[in-house]
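User: Here's a chain of 147 residues. Predict its fold as C-alpha cells.
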Amino acid sequence: SDLVIGAVLIPGAKAPKLVTEEMIQSMEPGSVVVDIAIDQGGIFETTDRITTHDNPTYEKHGVVHYAVANMPGAVPRTSTLALTNVTVPYAVQIANKGYKAACLGNTALLKGINTLEGYVTFEAVAEAHGVEYKGAKELLEAETVSC
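Assistant: Prediction complete.
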C-alpha cells in the first residue's frame, strides 16, 4: 500500500500493534503510515516516537511515519467548535437533572464515568492498574452515592 492509516481505539487500553516491522519493510519506499492511534501507543511496530505539528514525520525503512499526538490541535478553532457542539447537550442534561439522574437516563453519560466514590468504573482501566472495579450504574443506584 502507498498509504496506511492506523486508527484503532480500545477504550481504556493501549492500542494493539497490528502492523509489524516486517510489513513496513515490505512497503514501497516513500509510502506513508499515519498512526492516529499514537495517543494510545500506536498500532505500527515502527512507530517509535511521537511527532509534533512542527516536526510531524520521520522516515524508517524508507517509509514516512506521521505520528502526531492530539491531531485536532492542528485545527484548534474547528476542533473546539466540534467538541462544544457534541458536549453541550450532555452538560444541559446534567444541569437540568443532576449528574446521577442524567447518567442513569443516558447510556452515553453513564459510559463517560471513569471514577466514582473512590472506585474505577472502567473495567479495562481498573485491570490495567490493578485496582478494584465497580460498575458506575451499580454505584449510582446505591443509596450511598453523594450528590
